[in-house]
Amino acid sequence: xxxxxxxxxxxxxxxxxxxxxxxxxxxxxxxxxxxxxxxxxxxxxxxxxxxxxxxxxxxxxxxxxxxxxxxxxxxxxxxxxxxxxxxxxxxxxxxxxxxxxxxxxxxxxxxxxxxxxxxxxxxxxxxxxxxxxxxxxxxxxxxxxxxxxxxxxxxxxxxxxxxxxxxxxxxxxxxxxxxxxxxxxxxxxxxxxxxxxxxxxxxxxxxxxxxxxxxxxxxxxxxxxxxxxxxxxxxxxxxxxxxxxxxxxxxxxxxxxxxxxxxxxxxxxxxxxxxxxxxxxxxxxxxxxxxxxxxxxxxxxxxxxxxxxxxxxxxxxxxxxxxxxxxxxxxxxxxxxxxxxxxxxxxxxxxxxxxxxxxxxxxxxxxxxxxxxxxxxxxxxxxxxxxxxxxxxxxxxxxxxxxxxxxxxxxxxxxxxxxxxxxxxxxxxxxxxxxxxxxxxxxxxxxxxxxxxxxxxxxxxxxxxxxxxxxxxxxxxxxxxxxxxxxxxxxxxxxxxxxxxxxxxxxxxxxxxxxxxxxxxxx
Length: 523
Hints:
Distance between the termini: 45 Å
Number of domains: 3
Structural class: alpha/beta
Strand content: 15-25%
CATH topology of the largest domain: TIM Barrel
Radius of gyration: 27 Å
CATH architecture of the largest domain: Alpha-Beta Barrel
CATH superfamily of the largest domain: Aldolase class I
Shape: elongated
Helix content: 25-40%
Number of strands: 16
Largest sheet: 8 strands, parallel, barrel
Strand order of the largest sheet: 1-2-3-4-5-6-7-8
Mean pLDDT: 91
C-alpha cells in the first residue's frame, strides 16, 4: 500500500501494543468490534495481535475474516526467527503464515546491546535472522513491514551496526522499515538526526513507532513525518505499555490540518471524537477530559476574559474548529464565570436571553448559591441544563418518587449485598420494583430504571458508566458533605449529573434521578 509524497499511511496497533497497557484486557469480541470501527474510520493498517503468543490472538485472526473488513489491511505481528534455527521451522514464523493475513510485521534487534545481552547471539547472526525472515515471508507472498526495535537507542550506541540491520531488511524485500523509539526516551532532534542518516543509506519507505515515556511520542512522530516517514504507528488515545504509545488521535488531525499531509477524508476526520470515546469505552478506561482534540474540555471555555474574546472571534482561544474532528465548543458555567457565561450556555440550550436580563441574574445567583453548598456544574452539564429549565419554568414532570428504601446485608462478611425498593408514579400510574445490587447505589439504579421502564421503555437503553465521590468539606470528618458525579450513556451520547448531601446514598440518589430525568427530557 504505497503512500504518495503528501500522504501518510496510518498503522493502528491498539489491538496489540495497546492491550499491553496495565488494566486493559480485551476479549476477542472486543477486538473484533474495535477493528470494525477502525476500518470504518479509514485506518490503513490494523495490527490484530501476535498469533504465536496466545490463543486469543489466533481466534481473532480466524474470526476477523468473517467480520466484513472493507478498507484496512489486517496485520499479524511477530519476531524474526530464533537464533541458529531454520526460518522454515520457526514456530513464530509459521504462526504468522497461519494467520493468513496479506501483511505481516516482524521486529528485529537494532541495538547491539540487545543482540548480545537479550538474544545472547552474535551481531552477524542477528543480521542473518533479519534477512532470512523477511525474505522467507516475502517468498510466501506477504507484504512485510519491518519494525526496527530500539533503533534510536541502537543508533546512539553503534550507528553503523544499527544501519546494517535496516539494510538487511531492505535487501530482503521489506515494503516499509519502521524505526522504533521503543524505550520512549528520544528527543525530537535525535529523531531527526537519525532519520537523515538512514535516508542516505536505504531507499525503502520509512515508518515511525514511538513510545511516550518522555511524553514526546506525538512530537517525535510528527518530527519523523516531517523528515519524510511515510507511515506512522500508534494507538487510539495513546494507550500502551508503561506510559503508552504515540496517540493517533492527536497525530491524525495534526497531519491533516497542521502539516497539510493527507491521511483521511474530511468526513472520516469528523468521526475522530466518536472513535476516541468508543475505544475508551470498550477498553473500560475513562477518557481524560483534557485529552487534546477529543476530550470534553479540549474546546471548553470558563474564564470571563476568554469568553468575551471568543464572542469576537473563535480564533482568540481555539487553535482549530472543533467541528472538523467531531467535537464541539463548550462554555462552562460556574461561580467564577459571569452573566456572559450564563447567556452563552442558555443560547447553546436554545434558551436565548440577554446577559443583563432578570433570567441571567436569576440563573447566576442560583448557581453561585448551589456551588457554595458544594455543587459543581462544570463537569455535570446535564444537571445544569435541568436546573436552567426549572428556573426558566420550562421543566417537565416525567415522574414522581413516592417512596425509596435501601438496605445492605452481610457487611463485614466479604460478600455484602444491597436491596432497593422504589415506588414511582409516572403517566398516572404507580410502579413498584425491587432490585438487588452489589452496593446501595447499584441497587437503587436497577430498581429505579425497572420502575420507570413500565412508562418509559427507552430507559432500558441507558446504563451507568462512571461513579465518582468527592468529600466537599473534609474538616467535618464523617459528617462532611459528599459530591457525587454519575455518568450515564445510551447508544448516542454520554451525560453527567451531580448530587450533594451529607449522606452518600442521598447524594447518589439525587444524581441518579436527574440522570434519568435528563434522558427522558432528551427523548
